[in-house]
Amino acid sequence: MKSVFTLALSLLSLVQAAPPTANGTRFSVDGETRYFAGTNSYWIGFLTNNCDVDTVLDHISSSGLKILRIWGFNDVTGKPASGISAEKRGVKLIINFVNNWSDYGGMPAYVTAFGGSKESWYTNSRAQAQYKAYIAAVVKRYINSSAVFAWELANEPRCKGCSTGVIYKWATDISAYVRSLDRNHMIILGDEGFGLPGATSYPYQTSEGVDFVKNLAIKDLDFGTFHFYPQSWGLGNAAGAAWIKDHASACKKAGKPCLFEEYGTSTDHCTIERPWQQASLQAATEGMAADLFWQWGDTLGTGQTHNDGNTIYYGSADATCLITEHVRAINSL
Questions:
Q1: Which residues are known to be catalytic?
Q2: What is the pLDDT, as a whole number, of residue 3?
């Protein structure tokens, strides 16, 4: 298997300021220590037109969003066409190394190449050797860039039916490996926040092999992440406030920031998601440091970007509610 991805990020090499850091339960970015807002865009790295990349980054930056989470992988069995680059516009990037899901290859691509299953991927020595080789290639390329917000081990790692010790040991080993390559940038797991004290519903359980509190204590992980998709998890939308508060509490106890890294619904975005943003912002002194909605949408030369039902398009009424008004609320603190 070839794991090939040309990051659309010449922007990474242009900034000389110190990289973002964790400061207690807050983030410090470009000299500011406060609460930040951001978004996700899995597709920006796959754009093939420089003007489209520039347009998206201009829109994100001008909207007041500081953090952009992207896919730093494209696990394939052949070499794709080269990617393109774009200049930085004050947006810091969370770069993810592998997907739990089959989108753009992910762990299933490693399984195809090296055998086993997604559950055994974490302990498959050949798969892990290839994974680490890819990490080294990406990290070494951008090690001197202050535009990197954090390196992320995986998108939504799960090990269904496994002991929580499997992901814990893997995350401990891989985060230490990344730290050996790069002492300056932050490192995170990228999990959904499963396995948490506070309730007994599905996401609070450890059936997916994830223990949020235990993983948060890993020395080389700088902050905690969690997601929220109530429609997929069999929860009501109102459960979001407690989910946020419980993670904030765990992060405050650990002395690390909490990032509400993904959240979304397929309908009534403003009505449903705005209270989650408000709950996160209200916990800004209790462990919460930032939130990133899923996902950014824009209009490119070829038309609108992919709409997975959760997409918030630039310039829309939903964007006014969830971006403009949210940023205004943050700035008023």
A1: 156, 262
A2: 42
Q: Is the full-model pTM beyond 0.90?
A: yes
How many other β-carbons are positioned within 10 Å of the β-carbon of residue 140? 11
| CA separation for the pair 283, 286 (Å, rounded) | 5
Q: Is the pLDDT at 306 greater than 80, yes or no? A: yes
Query: Is it the case that residue 6 has pLDDT exceeding 80?
Result: no
pLDDT category at 25 given cuts 50, 70, 90 is very high
Residue located via tokens 């998108």: 155
109-135, pLDDT tens digit by residue? 999 999 999 999 999 999 999 999 999
**Calpha distance 222→23 (Å, rounded):** 10
Closest CA to 123 of 171, 155, 181: 171
Beta-strand relationship, 26-29 and 21-23: antiparallel
Residue 59: its pLDDT value, please?
A: 97
**With helix as H, strand as E and coil as C, how does the chain read?**
CEECCCCCCHHHHCCCCCCCEEECCEEEECCEEECEEEEECCCHHHCCCHHHHHHHHHHHHHCCCCEEEEECCCEECCCCCCCCCCCCCCCEEEEECCECCCCCCHHHHHHHHHCCCCCCHHHCHHHHHHHHHHHHHHHHHHCCCCCEEEEECCECCCCCCCCHHHHHHHHHHHHHHHHHHCCCCEEECCCCCCCCCCCCCHHHCCCCCCCHHHHHCCCCCCCEEEEECHHHHCCCHHHHHHHHHHHHHHHHHHCCCEEEEEECCCCCHHHHHHHHHHHHHHCCCCCEEEEEECCEECEECCEECCCCCCCEECCCHHHHHHHHHHHHHHHCC
Token pair belonging to 200 = 């007994």
Structural contact between residues 315 and 300, judged by C-beta atoms closer than 8 angstroms? no
Average pLDDT score over residue span 6-22: 61
